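User: You have something folded?
Assistant:
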Amino acid sequence: METTKTNGPAAGELDADRGPDRTEDDGATDATAPGTAPGTAPETASPGTAPATTGEPQDLDDPDDVDEPETPGSADAPAAPADPAGVVPGAAAVVGAALGLASLTGTWLGTVLAERRQLIGQIDTSSGSPARQIEQIYGAPWHTTAAVNGVCALVALVVLGAALLAGRNAAPWVRAVAWGGLALGVLGLCVAAGTWFDLFGGLPSVAGTPVSSGG
């Protein structure tokens, strides 16, 4: 009885055909990186891709994460302190100008002292001559007012002179007020001196009574 043989390649031919394929597979397996499964291609970084970083990713679109530059003169900056070198001359100029004006218009103190002096003159000359009464009741209060105004003018000149010397580099308005007050002080001093020396008007005089001759 004849045995039927299947047509096909011989065993030697199969080994010969399979040999090169197995050699190529083995080479490909050895070429892979260690720690990777056989037949898996190694991961390669694509060009233009940033490397991964550890930690939480930052959201660049959040405006709170962006540091805003500090600008000078912001609301948080402390206010500059006042300069005493500019405040003192300004205050002195205002005070001096007020005193210079008071030396021309008169003061409450001058009015009170003049009325007091007038009352004293009335008491002292209740039984005196008419000329003495005029001197004590009208002349003395007049001179008292002139003395008070003159003192105010002198104080104004001293204060304004110090303000001008100390405020050489002060603001223009300070020097303007100081010079204006200085002019008022000089004028007030001149008026007070003229009043004291009766340059603007003398005291009234009483005409002498004619003496009648016996016939």
Remarks:
- The two ends are 220 Å apart (CA to CA).
